[in-house]
UniProtKB/TrEMBL annotation, chain A:
Keywords: Cell membrane, Cytoplasm, Hydrolase, Membrane, Metal-binding, Zinc. This is N-acyl-aromatic-L-amino acid amidohydrolase. It is a peripheral membrane protein. Zn(2+) binds at residue 83.
UniProtKB/TrEMBL annotation, chain B:
Residues 1-182 form the Succinylglutamate desuccinylase/Aspartoacylase catalytic domain. The active site is at 154 (proton donor/acceptor). This is Aspartoacylase. Binds 1 zinc ion per subunit.
Length: 294, 287
C-alpha cells in the first residue's frame, strides 16, 4: 500500500497506510503464531511478555507505539482497519461503540454514498476495557469488513467496494475538518448478542454439520426460532433453538472455525445521531466533536 | 474442505461408498497439510508425482510431499504398472465458479469417458462439465495419475477452509454415481459407444505483473465468475487497480475456467483457456 498524505483545500487530513501483519501477508495467512486482531486489549499491550512471545504480541505493541498508545492523547484520531470475510456480509462498519458519533456519521455517509451495496453497522457490545482489535488503538476506530471473498483471492467487485468505502471515509473526514455540518437523525445498527458454534463430535471436536443451505449467505436476514440452521452430514436439519428472532452475520466465516463460531447473532436497534460539527481551536487538525442541542 | 470432510466420514463409516463388486479405499493424501489447513506443507503434492520425485532417494530429508508421493505410489501404484489401482478419484474444491467439473487426463481413456458420460446423464439437468488436460506443457503429475484411470473431481466455488453444504452434497452425489457406474461395469453391463463434450485446456493466462512480480490487475468484473462462458477477442479480461480494462487479445473464442483460483496466484495463472471438443468413447464391457 502506498503511504499518502493529503492536504486539500478546506480540510487537512494526514493519512498513514500501514500493513498490520506483513509476515502473515507474505505467507498468505491470517497470522503466524496468534491472531493479531485479538492482541490489542490493555492487558495484552501492557502486561508482561514471555521470553519468546508470539510474533503478533510483539507486533501489536509496535502498532500501538506507532498509532497509539491506546487510550492516550497521542493516539491517532481514527483507525480504519481493512478486512475481508468469506461471509456474504456486503460492507460492514464494525465498532465497539454504539455512541461514537464520528464512526456512526461515517457509517451513515457511506450508506448514502454507496447505494448499490448493502452497508451496515455492527456494534460489538464489549466494554471499553476489553476492546481487543486494532481499530481500538485510535481515539476513534472501526473495521471496514467486506465480503464475500475467499481467502487469498482479489475480486474486482470487492476491491472496488473497499476502495470506494475508504475514499468516502476520507472524504467525510475532510468535510468534517473543514467545518461541514452533519445533520442528526435515526440510523439502524446491529448489536451483537451472541454466537453459535458448529455441532461438534464430543471426543475429537471435529465439526459434524455445515451451515444449512437455507441459512448459507443469508447474513442479516432475520432468523426465527425453529428455522433451519445446520445440516448434519447425515442430512438431518438442526434448527435455531433461541426464543428471540435475531439477525445472523459472519455466517460461515473461514477464520472463525477455530474460534468456535459458525455465526454471530444480533439485535437490530435504532439510535438517533446528534448533529455533528467540528469545533476548531486554532490548529485545523485538532477537533472536538460537538453535540448541538435542539 | 469437502473432500477431506467426506473422506473422514467414510473412514469412520464407509457404508455409503461400498459396492458389492468394488473394492474402495478412502484416503487422505496430505494429512499434515490438513492439520495446518493449508494446501501443502513444503511443496504442492498435486504436482509432485514426477518420475524424478517418485524415484528420488533421501528418505526423511526429502520435502514432506515428495515423501508422501512415494508413499502413495507404494500404496496405490506403482504408477504405470499392472499392480496400480484401477481408479483414483481426487477430490478438490476451487474458489472458481466452476460448478461440478470432472478432470480427464487422457482423451483415449474410454473407461473414464464412459464413466463421465454416465455421471453427466445421472445428474442431469444439473450440470457436470469435463475438463481435458492433455496439454504437453500444461499437464502436470497429479496424485491421481498413480492409478490406471485417474479422475479429478473439482467442485466450486468454495473459499479455502470453508464447508458449504451445497458444494459438499454435490461432490457426494457425483461420487455415488461414479461408484454405481463401476459396480455396473464390474457386474458385466455393456456401455455402448457414446459422445462426450469436453473442454480441452489450451493456454494458461497469468495476471499482469510489475517488474517485482506483484500483480497489477485483477480479473475483470465481466469475466469474474464466468467460467465456461465464451470469451471473445476484445472482451474485458483484467481490470487494473486504477480501473483500466485490459481486453483478451487471443485469435478466437475460448472458454475460460479456473478463473481466479486462490491456489494458482503462485503458479502464475489467472485462468486457463479451453476449446470445446466432442470425443467419441468406444463401447466397453468387462472382459
Amino acid at each position: 500500500m502506498r503511504t499518502a498524505t493529503g492536504a486539500e483545500a478546506g480540510g487537512d487530513v494526514s493519512v498513514r497506510a500501514v500493513l498490520a501483519n506483513p509476515r502473515a501477508t507474505r505467507l498468505g495467512r491470517r497470522y503466524l503464531d496468534t491472531d493479531l486482531n485479538r492482541c490489542f486489549t490493555h492487558a495484552a499491550l501492557n502486561g508482561p511478555l514471555s521470553d519468546a512471545p508470539p510474533y503478533e504480541m510483539t507486533r501489536a505493541r509496535e502498532l500501538d507505539a506507532l498509532l497509539g498508545p491506546k487510550g492516550s492523547p497521542r493516539a491517532v484520531d481514527l483507525v480504519c482497519d481493512l478486512h475481508n470475510s468469506t461471509s456474504n456480509m456486503g460492507l460492514c462498519v464494525i465498532a465497539f461503540s454504539d455512541c461514537d458519533w464520528i464512526c456512526l456519521h461515517v457509517f451513515r455517509y457511506l450508506q448514502r454514498q454507496m447505494p448499490d451495496i448493502p452497508v451496515r453497522y455492527i456494534h460489538l457490545d464489549v466494554p471499553d476495557e476489553e476492546s481487543f482489535s486494532l481499530d481500538s488503538v485510535g481515539k476513534h476506530g472501526f473495521a471496514l469488513e467486506i465480503g464475500p471473498q475467499p481467502h487469498g483471492v482479489v475480486r474486482s467487485d470487492i476491491y472496488t467496494a473497499m476502495k470506494d468505502g475508504l475514499q468516502h471515509t476520507l472524504d467525510w473526514v475532510r468535510l468534517f475538518n473543514s467545518g461541514a455540518v452533519f445533520e442528526g437523525g435515526p440510523v439502524d445498527l446491529f448489536t451483537a448478542v451472541g454466537h453459535v458454534d458448529y455441532p461438534r463430535e464430543a471426543d475429537t471436536q471435529n465439526i459434524m454439520a455445515a451451515i444449512h443451505p437455507k441459512l448459507q449467505d443469508q447474513d442479516f436476514c432475520l432468523l426465527r426460532p425453529e428455522e433451519p440452521m445446520f445440516q448434519t452430514f447425515s442430512g438431518q436439519t438442526l434448527r435455531y433453538k433461541g426464543s428471540e428472532p435475531l439477525y445472523p452475520f459472519f455466517i460461515n466465516e473461514c477464520a472463525y472455525y477455530e474460534k468456535g463460531v459458525a455465526l454471530y447473532l444480533a439485535r437490530k436497534r435504532s439510535v438517533t445521531l446528534p448533529t455533528l460539527r467540528v469545533h476548531k481551536k486554532g490548529h485545523p487538525a485538532n477537533f472536538v466533536s460537538v453535540q448541538e442541542e435542539e | 474442505m469437502s473432500g477431506v470432510t467426506l473422506v473422514n466420514l467414510w473412514m469412520k463409516n464407509g457404508a455409503e461408498i461400498q459396492r458389492k463388486t468394488v473394492d474402495t479405499k478412502p484416503f487422505i493424501t496430505n494429512p499434515r497439510a490438513v492439520e495446518k489447513c493449508a494446501r501443502y506443507v513444503d511443496t504442492d503434492l498435486n504436482r509432485a508425482f514426477t518420475p524424478e520425485n517418485l524415484s528420488a532417494s533421501g528418505g526423511k530429508e526429502l520435502p514432506y510431499e515428495v515423501q508422501r508421493a512415494q508413499e502413495i505410489n507404494r500404496l496405490f501404484g506403482p504408477k504405470g504398472s499392472p499392480e496400480a489401482y484401477d481408479v483414483i478419484f481426487d477430490l478438490h474444491n476451487t474458489t472458481s465458479n466452476m460448478g461440478c467439473t470432472l478432470i480427464l487426463e487422457n482423451s483415449k481413456d474410454h473407461f473414464n469417458l464412459q464413466m463421465m458420460n454416465y455421471i453427466k446423464r445421472a445428474i442431469a439437468p444439473a450440470s457436470c462439465l469435463v475438463l481435458l488436460n492433455e496439454h504437453p506443457l500444461l499437464k502436470y503429475s497429479t496424485s491421481r495419475s498413480v492409478a490406471k484411470h485417474p479422475v479429478g473431481l473439482e467442485v466450486g466455488p468454495q473459499p479455502q477452509g470453508v464447508l458449504r453444504s451445497n458444494i459438499f452434497e454435490a461432490m457426494r452425489v457425483i461420487l455415488k454415481h461414479a461408484l454405481d457406474f463401476i459396480a455396473l461395469f464390474n457386474e458385466g453391463m455393456e456401455f455402448p459407444s457414446c459422445t462426450v463434450e469436453v473442454f480441452r485446456v489450451s493456454e494458461s493466462v497469468d495476471y499482469p505483473r510489475d517488474a517485482n512480480g506483484n500483480i497489477i490487475a485483477m480479473v475483470h468484473p465481466n469475466l469474474q465468475d464466468c467460467d465456461w462462458e465464451p470469451l471473445n477477442p476484445g472482451d474485458p479480461m483484467f481490470q487494473t487497480f486504477d480501473g483500466k480494462t485490459i481486453p483478451y487479445q487471443g485469435t478466437g473464442t475460448v472458454y475460460p475456467t479456473f478463473i481466479n483460483e486462490a491456489a494458482y496466484y503462485e503458479k502464475q495463472q489467472a485462468f486457463v483457456t479451453t476449446r470445446r471438443e466432442t470425443l467419441v468413447a468406444s463401447a466397453i464391457r468387462k472382459a
